[in-house]
Structures are given as C-alpha cells and as structure tokens.
Amino acid sequence: MQLGIIGLGKMGGNLALQANEKKIAVIGKARSKKPELEKQGVKVVTDYGSFVGFMKHPRIVYLSLPAGPTVDSVLGELVPHLEEGDVVIDGGNSFYVDSSEREKKMHEKGIYFLDCGTSGGLEGARHGACFMVGGKEEGTKIAEPILIALSVKDGYFYTGQPGTGHFVKLVHNGIEFGMLQSIGEGVELLRKSGFELD
Length: 198
Known about the structure:
Blueprint: E1 2-6, H1 10-21, E2 25-29, H2 35-38, E3 43-45, H3 48-54, E4 60-63, H4 69-78, E5 87-90, H5 96-108, E6 112-119, H6 121-127, E7 129-134, H7 137-149, E8 151-160, H8 164-191
Parallel strand pairs: 1-2, 1-4, 2-3, 4-5, 5-6, 7-8
Antiparallel strand pairs: 6-7
C-alpha cells in the first residue's frame, strides 16, 4: 500500500509515522525537508511532480491542512499532476458545504474527493485515529484499506454522500465542546458555591 500526505505538521507527521510502521509506503509533501521524519523512513519531497511520481495509480493522497483557502490552493497545484481515478482525502476540519463543492469540481476531472473527519488528536494520528468519511462509494473503496489500517478498532466509518464526513465531524466536535463547556461550568459552580469542597 502507498499513501501520499500533504502537510507534515503534528497531525500529518504522526499519521506518516504510523503508516510507515504499518508497512504503508509513505511520501510526504512539505514546504521544507523534515529530517526527523526522514530519519524514520518517511520520504519527503517539496514538489508535486516528485510527490505524484512516487505513487502508483490509483494514488491515495491525504491532505492534513488547515481548513479554508489553503485546501483550495493546494488542490489547484496538485490536481494537474493527478490522473482519473486517483483519490484525494481532505482529513482536516473543512466546512462540509465547501467539501461538497470541492467534490463536484474534482468529480468533473474524474478524481475522487473524500471528506474525512479525523478524530483522536495527536495520539490518534500516531497510534490509531477515527475516520468519518463522505464521498463517492467507489472512491472510498480504494482508500478504505489504508484508512482502516490507520484507525483504531472499529474507528473507520463510511458516512455516505459527499459532505457527510465533515458534517458528522462538525456534530462530533459540537458535542465534545459542549461537554467541555458543561464540565467547566460545573467546576465553576462547585468553586463558587460557598461550601468547602475538595
């Protein structure tokens, strides 16, 4: 199996190390060399030609990028190097409506675009994440073996049509942050209660 990762920050870098340990050949694309990753067997390049040329068709490319214009900018540079049937996975926290629009544009070029909510933080990226994946089913079938290999047990889920992966992740984050807010408010009530509580 082969995986290309664009964006080798904390999440992308840890995902690359996990994949490498699981005998998935990884090539990373970054703006500069990453000696700490290269020492551990991750091939790192700084240009799209070398990046795409390293992988066999159909290529699977995982984007570990901040949501917003950066995703569109990278897609604009990457897509001319890809072929029909390749798969691009947006593993960031992109807005689900943006993901649906990107999928339509990529579909016109014959490239599968998957919106993949990725949960588990740095620990998950390093040792097993949870993936909520939306997009065309044919595209998910190509990427599925790699995503299952990089997930915790039962941590991979195909959510359905384009946009649903990032929508489910949005709801997931809303629940998580709502719980954190509730805990914070509960602790504040205990501290300001006037009682001597440990």
